[in-house]
Every structure is written in C-alpha cells, then in structure tokens.
Amino acid sequence: MSVLLEELENSPLHWFADWPIAAVPRSGAVVYTVWDRGGQFLYVGMAGRGEQTARGSGPFGRLASHASGRRSGDQFCIYVADRLVLSALHNRLAEIASGSLLLDLETRAFIRANLGFRFVSVEHGRAALELERQIQRGALKAGPPFLNPLRAR
Fold first, then answer.
1. Which of 27, 48, 49, 94 has its CB surrounded by the most CB atoms within 10 Å?
2. 115-122 and 28-36 strand pairing
3. What is the H or E stretch that residue 8 is in?
C-alpha cells in the first residue's frame, strides 16, 4: 500500500492540458490524485470497477469527464467550479446569470490550465474505494485533499 501512496504523491503528473492521456486505462480500477501547479493536493478519486461500459465509465471516461469541465454529473467539476473558479469570477456573476459567460467553459479552462493528476491501477473496485478513503482521511504526506476530505459524521 505504501508504494501506491508514494506513486500517488510523487510520480510525474499528467496535465489535463494534455488531455487525452494515452496512459490512462480504458478499463480496470484506478485511484487518482489531482494537484495544482503549485503542488497543492486538491482531490482524490477512483474509477472503474471492471470492464468499460457503453457509457465510458472506466478510468479513461471518468478522467475525460473531469477534463471536460462540465458540472452536470461530475462532482469533481462542481467542486472546482464552486471552490476555485467562482471566486475569480465574483465580479462577473451577472454574465454567468445572463448566459454570456458559461461556467462550464470557465471550469474547463481552469482545469486545463492549472491541474494535473497521478493514478495507480488497483486490482478491483473494492481496493480502489479502500485506498481512496484512506487518502481522504490523510494517508498522504500532503494530508487530506482540499476539495473532498473524508469528514467525520
């Protein structure tokens, strides 16, 4: 497990600016971490529970959804828009409300300009979920992710 944590924290980043990334598997299970250009750990996620489905829900499909910036159905993009993009657009809210400034496009531009990811393949979805939860609790040296830490209930 410590080897996987090390890779998720220190292996070379794949930048969303370079999407699509051929190294991302189309099927299987992965855990991924997202970082900004300043080295801040922002998000941990998992994708895939086996073979790719028709809807593209494998690892490649999940990360492609993140790279798109579309908030509909993508919790990562919602977090990025709400916590990182809107604060920079505070004086442009009327444009967002009128539809002349599209929040999804601003989110995509932010993700592509500022964020990168690392990923590791794991044996199955249960292992991915377990590793994701450990990282959300702070298993990396960077601590828990900024956007989706696991909070005690």
1. 48
2. antiparallel
3. helix 2-10
